[in-house]
Amino acid sequence: MSARIVSVLAVGAALLITSCSGESGGTASPAPSTAPASSSAPKPSPATSAAPSSSTAAEATGGDAVERYETFLHAAGREDLATVCEIAGPALKKAEDEGFGPCEKTMPMSFKMLSATQKKAMLTAAVDRSKIKDGAGKVEIPASAVKASVKFAKSDIGDVVMEKRGGKWYVVD
Q1: What is the dihedral of CA 33, 35, 37, 41, to 10 degrees?
Q2: What is the DSSP string of 18-41?
Q3: Beta-bridge partners for 75
Q4: CA quadruple 121, 17, 20, 104: dihedral positive or negative?
Q5: Alpha-carbon span 150 to 169, nearest angstrom
Q6: Could you tell me what percentage of the chain is helix, strand and coil, using 3-state DSSP and rounding each to the nearest 5?
Q7: Residue 140: beta bridge partners?
Q8: What is the pLDDT confidence band of residue 62, given thresholds at 50, 70 and 90?
Q9: Could you tell me the CA-to-CA distances from 172 to 17, 64, 169 in Å, in that order?
Q10: What is the pTM of this model?
């Protein structure tokens, strides 16, 4: 069994690090409008009022992959087995094929390897996008890119490779 798969298992349960779905800061709530509700000012047409899409910029820095990985990290911190197994499914399937049990059996053991402090830190962990390597359909997230209230070493969570499959990002290695 490769050391990378072992890292994924340890990380998967322990933390396989990574933009939460609104849980970890990173995005601010829009400021409330100061215009009165019954404003008589003409409303711009949808074609001119739409904000520019940030998906291109986000994708250029692994945006969706990073957000998905952060969701994974937050789920690991909550011991949310269903979410962890779904996002890390491909990597955990490799481990299962190499003799480890299914995710539903191995991840609870991995969760126990994390301290309460580490789990709490995972709840708000974020990824420093300047440290990732992205390519066509794959994003590499080194352990050093994970920012949390405690420092996670490569031996704690490992480096992660995210891959886009069927329109969604998954931990594959």
Answers
A1: -130
A2: ---SSSSSSSPPPPPP-S-TT--S
A3: none
A4: negative
A5: 26
A6: 45, 10, 40
A7: 133, 161
A8: low
A9: 13, 15, 9
A10: 0.67
Burial class (CB in 10 A: 0-12, 13-18, 19+), 72: buried
* Location of structure tokens 């499914």: 89
Q: Give me the pLDDT at residue 154, please.
A: 85
3-state secondary structure of 133: strand
83-140 pLDDT tens trace: 999 999 999 999 999 999 999 999 999 999 989 999 999 999 999 999 999 988 899 9
What one-letter code names the amino acid at 63? G
172: tokens are 């594959």
Using an 8 Å Cβ cutoff, are 157 and 141 in contact? no
Q: What is the mean pLDDT of the chain?
A: 74
